[in-house]
Amino acid sequence: MTNRDSTPVAAGYRWPAEWEPHAATWLAWPHNVATWPGTFARIPPQFAAFARTVADHEPVRILAGGADVLAVAKSHLGTAPATTFYDIPTNDAWCRDHGPTFLLATAATSDPPASRGERLALVDWRYNAWGEKYPPFDLDDRVPERIAAELCCRRFAVDLVVEGGAIEGNGAGTVLTTRSCLLHPNRNPGRSKAEIERCLSDCLQARQVLWLDRGELAGDDTDGHIDQLARFVGPRTIVAATTDDRSDPNYAPLRDNLAQLRGMVDQDGAAFEVVPLPLPQAKFQAGHRLPASYCNFYFVNGAVIVPQFEDDADAAAAGILGELLPGHSVIGLPALDLVWGLGAFHCLAQQQPLAHVDGTSQE
C-alpha cells in the first residue's frame, strides 16, 4: 500500500476496540503437533471448550482447511451452535497473529464507505511467523486474503510485518505496542520508528502510538507481544502484568513497564488508570518456562474469557477484571495446556466487529 490516498483512514475506516460489539470471532483449528510437543492430544478438547464458550455469546468462524482437519474439527464441534467451518488451510492455530485486523467505517468522510455498503474492511499485514522462527508460514500469510474473499469485504494489503498480538488499541486513537517486537530486525529491517508509526496512523487511525521499552516475558517467543504485557479494558484504563516475586526474571521488566505506563497519556493528553494484574507463579513444561499471563484474556459480547493456570492467582486476576468490567461476565477457562504452545485465548482468536447500516447489522 504505497498511495496514502488508498489507506484505510483516508478511505474512512477506524479500528474498533475489542470490547465493542462483535459480529463473530475467527479461530483456526489446531493441527500442528509440533506446536504442543508431547501434549497435543489434550489440545483439541480444550480448544473446543474455548470455541463453545465463545459461541455461547457470538458466532464462531473456524478455519479448518482440508478434509482431515475439517473432519477432526467437526468431530469436536459439529453440533455446536453458531459455528461455521471454512475450507481455509493454515500452518498453525494462532489466528490473532496471522489473521486480519478488522476495521469499521466512520462517517467522517464526504463519501463514507457506509454509503456504498462497505462498512467492513480489513488490514492484511505481512506475516512471517514471529521473525521466521517457525517455517513454513505461507498458508497463514494468506489467511486475511482468503477471509476478505469469503466476506466480500475491502482488503488493504500493507507491506509491514505486524502480528495481531503485537498491537493493542483503545478504539479512540491510541495504539500500544513494544519496541522489542515491531522494531525488531526480524520483522521490518530498515524501517524506522517514524515509518511504522505513520503506517499505524494510516491503517488504524492511531493519533498516539505508545511504545513500551521492556517487551521481555520469560518463556515468550514473540519478541514482546503487547497482549501478554498490557491490555486496554476501557478507553483510559489499562491492566498491566506484574509480579511481586523479586526472584522472578519478569520482576524488573514488568515493574519498568508499570512505571512507564503510568507516565503515558492517551490521544487527548489524558493520563491512564493503570491497574496491576498479577502473574501466576512460574509454570514449566519439559523444563521450559511458560509465558502464562492473565493479560491474554479475550472479549466476547457481554463477557471476557480469562485464562486459568491452576494457580492461586487465578481468582484474583478474574476478580480484578470483574471489577473493571462490571458490564461483562468473567469466565475462567483452563489454559495451562494451551500455553505450552506459548499462547492462550487472545492469541487464538480474532474479533470481527459488528457493522451497522441504517439501523440493521451488516457482517
General description of the model:
The protein has 363 residues and is an alpha/beta fold. The chain has a single domain, classed as 5-stranded Propeller (L-arginine/glycine Amidinotransferase, Chain A), CATH 3.75.10. The protein contains eleven helices and 21 strands. Strands 1-5-6-7 form a four-stranded mixed beta sheet, with helices on both faces. It has a four-stranded mixed beta sheet with strand order 4-3-2-19. The longest helix has 13 residues. The N terminus and C terminus are likely disordered.
Summary keywords:
disordered C terminus, 25% helix, four-stranded mixed β-sheet, single chain, 21 strands, alpha/beta, L-arginine/glycine Amidinotransferase, Chain A, 363 residues
The CATH topology = L-arginine/glycine Amidinotransferase, Chain A
pLDDT average, as an integer? 94
Second-tier CATH architecture: 5-stranded Propeller
Low-confidence stretches: 1-5, 357-361
SSE layout:
Blueprint lengths: L12 E2 L7 E7 L14 H13 L4 E4 L3 H11 L5 E4 L8 H4 L2 E5 L14 E7 L2 H4 L5 H4 L1 H9 L2 E8 L6 E2 L4 E5 H4 L10 H12 L3 E5 L17 E5 L2 E6 L8 H12 L10 E6 L5 E2 L2 E2 L8 E3 L2 E6 L4 H12 L4 E6 L10 H4 L1 E4 L1 E3 L2 E3 L1
Parallel strand pairs: 2-3, 3-4, 6-7, 9-10, 12-13, 17-18
Antiparallel strand pairs: 1-5, 2-19, 5-6, 8-9, 11-12, 14-15, 16-17, 20-21
